[in-house]
């Protein structure tokens, strides 16, 4: 059976491997292979590989002496890696435990296995977890050169959005003023700051803000990051007209915060607006909402419309990059 691999010319191999390794996308269970001047790098989460890379199926050999979870089972389990934790999503407790035992018995470098035990809930966007192996929900996750400490039981974090975050990060220029309205542990704010932006991150989850402060310090950018615990609508008054860039990653209800976003926007501001809509009209509702909030004070134009991922049957998580010019 083929293994998902990034295919690049050998001359681009090391740079590609390093970039994929920084995003924790390299699948250590298979060998990186060269064939006819082409390098094949096995990847663990092909759906999160940046669009600039070509992902193909390739018969990559299993790393010699390396045992994988599937070797312990009669099927290939589905799982995600987050730092040294593995996440599964199983409704059957017996099956979940079998998978966890197989993961621990394999040669994967893991410290624990968690099973999703609830949907995301509450204003703080957290979920319940069942610890199947190990003794913690805390983890240190590395993503495109930045390190993030977090506790999955206390904060919201999705490794599946790594590619989308990196797409936005690459747009940031030194000297920008960037505001993340729902900042979490800092996966936008911290890399923005590493590119020379001055950043403000707010979040109603106090634990997330504490991790944001720690992550800013861990990555050496605490002098460029202000972290504020609270509802952005109540704390944004000190930053009216301040932002060159705004992130609104609260896809179920970002429209309720557009008035605040417009108040934060400077004379020329890019807004990254995340939404969940049916595939019949994935971008229209968001565009109309942004335009209604921004005009006539601002002229609004759409620079990017992008589907981030499938959210549910017939629904997509999308992003609109909107530019507001006063």
UniProtKB/TrEMBL annotation:
GO molecular function: methyltransferase activity
Superkingdom, natural source: Archaea
InterPro entries found in the cross-reference section: MeTrfase_TRM5/TYW2 (IPR030382), SAM-dependent_MTases_sf (IPR029063), TRM5-TYW2-like_MTfase (IPR056743), TRM5/TYW2-like_N (IPR056744), Trm5a/b_N (IPR040601)
Keyword entries, A-Z: Cytoplasm, Methyltransferase, S-adenosyl-L-methionine, Transferase, tRNA processing
Domain (SAM-dependent methyltransferase TRM5/TYW2-type): residue spans on this chain: 79-326
A Gene Ontology biological process term: methylation
SUPFAM superfamilies linked: S-adenosyl-L-methionine-dependent methyltransferases
Pfam families: TRM5-TYW2_MTfase, Trm5_N, TYW2_N_2
Protein name: Class I SAM-dependent methyltransferase family protein
Species name: Haloarcula onubensis
């Amino acid at each position: 059976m083929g293994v998902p691999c990034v295919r690049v010319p050998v001359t681009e191999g090391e740079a590609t491997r390093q970039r994929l390794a920084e995003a924790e996308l390299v699948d250590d269970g298979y060998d990186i292979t060269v064939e006819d001047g082409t390098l094949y790098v096995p990847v663990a989460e092909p759906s999160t590989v940046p669009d600039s890379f070509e992902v193909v199926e390739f018969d990559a050999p299993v790393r010699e002496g390396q045992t994988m979870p599937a070797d312990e089972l009669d099927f290939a389990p589905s799982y995600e890696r987050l730092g040294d934790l593995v996440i599964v999503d199983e409704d059957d407790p017996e099956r979940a435990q079998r998978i966890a035992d197989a993961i621990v018995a394999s040669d994967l470098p893991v410290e624990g296995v968690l099973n999703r035990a609830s949907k995301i809930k509450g204003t703080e966007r957290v979920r319940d977890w069942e610890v199947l192996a190990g003794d913690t929900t805390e983890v240190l996750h590395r993503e495109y050169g930045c390190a993030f400490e977090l506790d999955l039981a206390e904060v919201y974090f999705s490794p599946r959005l790594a590619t989308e975050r990196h797409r936005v990060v690459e747009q940031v220029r030194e000297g920008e003023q960037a505001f993340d309205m729902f900042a979490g542990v800092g996966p936008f704010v911290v890399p923005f700051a590493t590119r020379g932006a001055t950043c403000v991150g707010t979040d109603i989850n106090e634990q997330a803000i504490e991790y944001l402060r720690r992550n800013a310090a861990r990555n050496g950018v605490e002098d460029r990051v202000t972290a504020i615990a609270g509802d952005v609508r109540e704390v944004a008054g000190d930053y009216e007209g301040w932002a060159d860039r705004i992130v609104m990653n609260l896809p179920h209800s970002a429209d309720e915060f557009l008035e605040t976003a417009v108040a934060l926007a400077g004379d020329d501001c890019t807004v990254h607006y995340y939404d969940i809509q049916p595939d019949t009209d994935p971008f229209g509702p968001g565009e109309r909402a942004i335009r209604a909030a921004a005009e006539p004070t601002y002229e609004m134009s759409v620079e990017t419309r992008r589907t981030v991922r499938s959210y549910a049957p017939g629904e997509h998580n999308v992003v609109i990059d909107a530019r507001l010019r006063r």
